Amino acid sequence: MLKFRNISLLRRIYVWGLGVITRIAYGPDLRNAASLENEPNPDISRIRRINSELEFGPGVWQKEFIQSSVRVSHNDMNEAFQLGDIANFVSDGVQAIAADTLTACFTAEPPDPWNFLTRNIPAGQWQMTPYNTLLWLVGIWARYCFLLPLRLMVIIVGAISFSLGWPLATLLPGEERKRVAHKWLLRYLASVVVLSWSGYVKFHGKRPERRPNQIYVANHTSPIDLFILQKDYNFSCIGQRHSGLAGFLQDLLMAAQDHVWFDRGEAGDRRAVIRLLREHVADGNKEPMLVFPEGTCTHSEYCIMFKKGSFELGAEVHPIAMRYRRRFGDPFWNSQNTSFPRHLFELMTSWAVVCDVYYIDPVHIREDETAVQFANRVKRLICERASLVSVNWDGFLKRHRISPKFLDSRQRAFASIITRRLQGELPRPMSSSALAAIASGGLAQTSEHPLTSGMDSLGFFDKRMNKQELRAPRRSSRLYRNVLTLRRRRGEDADETDRGTIGLAGRRQRTVRFMESTLQNTVRWAMGIGLFVAAALVTDRFMPASWKEAVRNGLIQ
Amino acid sequence: MGANTSSLLSEEIDEISRQADLPRLEVKRLYKRFQKLDRTQSGTLDADELLMIPELSMNPLHPRLLAVFENVNFHEFVNNIAAFSPSGAEEKKVDFAFKVYDVDADGFISKHDLDTVIRMLVGEHIPDETVQEVVARVVEAADLDKDGRISRSEFTSAVDVADLASRLTVSF
Fold it and tell me: What is the domain partition of chain A in residue ranges?
């Protein structure tokens, strides 16, 4: 039974088919887009600086930021303060206003347009060419007229069979058998819900086993995380009490299992929650506790700070890394502007939810480690496994202002630089133009980059980010992608012209290329029109005669 | 201004993009950003809304940046930010730096202005006399006509304009 959990033949074929269709439909663009999709390109160096500041204080910030800001412009090597010294503070502030790294974690960056999901396309970023419009119409038809009814049916049938099965299971003889049947039914319900968004989930690693004193922690993108994990194993969860549909589902789960739902507004709740959590974790008879220590839903490419609560219990921590592929639907729930039913509806009218779940080997707190450090270590494990961008912001900052102590420690850092400079201890680095002047005077200096040490020795970023920084300049991701795509295209063009100069062989190659692109376009259009006609024929076949009549009358009038 | 991008008309985008010398795409992106920051949907950004950006809240110079960005509509918002674009004129960038120092907005950086700004940068971590000493030295070095304050032209000759402009450039 356990071995079969990743076998979902139909869904695999479906997702594969979607992939093939997009590849034909959008041709070589897809290749660029697809290889970029898995590499978010946010402002990595900025995130690094902020991460380190939030975790270790302003040391690196001081080194990297102020010192590079406090440069000598003329010959006043020892001047404590110069008028140009505010430059980095000002540009950093303006940058924060224009785009900040906290908001990036909670903003649904739309998936690329080749997934036919137009509601996610920001205005002006993608041209509706006739061909794209055709595909889009087919997409709308398929998603709303075909997938949605099918999925609603799945949900209804699933819910009915579940509600029939539940009382039947209660009639079973023996407590143990009853419990097993109920657990199975809950997993069944979760799989039904996952199926309703064509969830294609791959589980990696060992399936959980219940032992006392263990706790599972996972990164959080949307409440649907819960269904996906519940599908594989019965977890108990802890979370904020919701209202509406989400609240109803919570009540339903509560009736069947032990969960802890709390209300953030209530002051006394916090201590009670920790007590409940402790008791639950220690009790080996209850389901293992699943915690989302980020405390809020985060965009699927980022992971924000883990709150320390679940790491101080002294329990064995089992990290779970979840990575969504946003190709065929965006799973991020932005609770600020989307209600939960609406979120579910959007998922049900998307193509598919593709997700990888990695169970990571359990870790224990080290003797010399605080709960915060331990939480950060676990977070690093998860980020590395799921290739997430690690950001150290507290989810709490989404709604509240940051504590002034960070401002104060920055002021202290700058004050210490001024003081040291006044005492003549800290010479200023050269400004770029002063350096240029020296270089043009024939005194070119090889200066080592002042920032390379420090951070890396802390081993604080996953390696992927380092690599990315080498490759990627600072750019907001969307713009950067466009630039990169452009650059790649230009690069390819350059190759072509190089080859073209060879002569006859080059000309032949160009002809072949031309034929290839013609063939490709023909296939694309044929497929587009084919899909459209197919959609029309199916509609014609299944539409009731009275509706047709109504449409015809409507058209004539 | 309404709740979605569509309320920004295409002509408005064109106009703003021409005035601020930014690509249309950037103007649209900034509009989305502006709406996100404008939590109350009032059409202007107030200090509380801006300070919800933790990176700004942590910035020692945030009171001065707020003075520029507070209560502005989208149009001015874009113009302020456009000064920092890689294609922005050096003149505009230096102007912005000058405005940051010129706390009382009288067109001159007085000793008092400079004292206020340095006080923001170091908080309570340096004694008053030291700050005053630093201020006196900066003003003395830059003040060419010896009137005890720094004018706009004195500011230009006191700073390394090319270096300052290159560091007042933001990729957004």
Answer: 198-398
List of chain B residues whose C-beta atoms are within 8 Å of the C-beta of residue A94: 65, 80-81, 84, 170
Structure tokens that stand for B139 in this block: 């003003």
The number of angstroms, rounded, from the C-alpha of B160 to the middle of its chain's C-alpha atoms is 18
- Please say whether the beta carbons of A124 and B28 come within 8 A: yes
Give the length of chain B: 172
Strands A289-291 and A236-240: parallel
Instruction: Calculate how close chain A gets to B20, using CA atoms only, in Å.
Output: 14
Q: Identify residue A273 by its one-letter amino acid code.
A: V
Tally DSSP H helices, then E strands, for chain A: 21, 9
Q: Which two tokens stand for residue B39?
A: 């939590």
State the smallest CA–CA distance between residue A175 and chain B in angstroms.
53
Residue from A42, A46, A104 nearest A468 by CA: A42
Interchain proximity B58–A73, CB inside 8 Å:
no
Could A88 and B167 be called an inter-chain contact, meaning their C-beta atoms sit closer than 8 Å?
yes
Residues 6+ apart with CB under 8 A from B148: B110, B111, B139
- Could you give the domains of chain B? 1-82 (1.10.238.10), 90-172 (1.10.238.10)
ipTM for the complex shown: 0.91
pLDDT in tens, A139-156: 888 888 888 999 999 999
- pLDDT tens per residue, range B21-51: 888 878 888 888 898 888 888 888 888 889 9
Q: How far is A422 from chain B (nearest CA, A)?
A: 9
Size of interface A-B (CB pairs under 8 A): 190
User: Which residue shows structure tokens 């000759």?
Assistant: B157
Prediction pTM value: 0.76
Q: Which amino acid is residue B142, in one-letter code?
A: A
- Write the pLDDT tens digit of every residue in A378-423: 999 999 999 888 888 888 888 888 888 889 988 888 888 888 888 8
Question: Does the distance separating the beta carbons of B36 and A415 come in below 8 Å?
Answer: no
Q: Do A397 and B28 touch (CB under 8 A)?
A: no
Provide, as residue numbers in chain A, all residues whose Cβ is less than 8 Å from the Cβ of B134: 80-81, 418, 422
Tokens describing residue B18: 């021409």
Question: What is the per-residue DSSP string for A106-152?
Answer: HS-PPPPGGGS-GGGSPTTSS---HHHHHHHHHHHIIIIIIIHHHHH
Contact B25 A124 (CB under 8 A): yes
Tokens of A311: 């790491």
For A445: left if phi > 0, alpha if psi spans -120 to 50, otherwise beta; the answer is: beta
